[in-house]
Amino acid sequence: SVQPQSNGIFPNNRLDNGLEAFDHEREFDTIENLVRNGMNKELRDRLCCRLTFGTAGLRSAMGAGFCYINDLTVIQSTQLRTCILHAYHKL
């Protein structure tokens, strides 16, 4: 079983416990098929890295995984920026 880095999404760092984080069927199916087919390198590439925020904002292809733009990563980056603004401005 692939063990992604601790990221707050996968309880106990277990991939199988975190699949419910993917709300969209296509993204879920992509990850599930990679697991079923034992494509560990592709799983690591998709799940063991994060999007980075640069001068142009978030940039990546759309797809399943933490290094791609999808509903989950947009929600997470929005929550992070909200927390930063809240802390900075003490709203």
UniProtKB/TrEMBL annotation:
S-adenosyl-L-methionine in keyword set: no
Gene Ontology molecular function terms on file: glucose-1,6-bisphosphate synthase activity; isomerase activity; metal ion binding
Signal peptide feature range: none
Keyword vocabulary terms for this entry: Isomerase, Magnesium, Metal-binding
Keyword field contains Transcription: no
GO cellular component: nucleus
Name this protein carries in UniProt: Phosphoglucomutase
Source organism per UniProt: Chrysemys picta bellii (Western painted turtle)
Lineage, broadest ranks: Eukaryota, Metazoa, Chordata, Craniata, Vertebrata
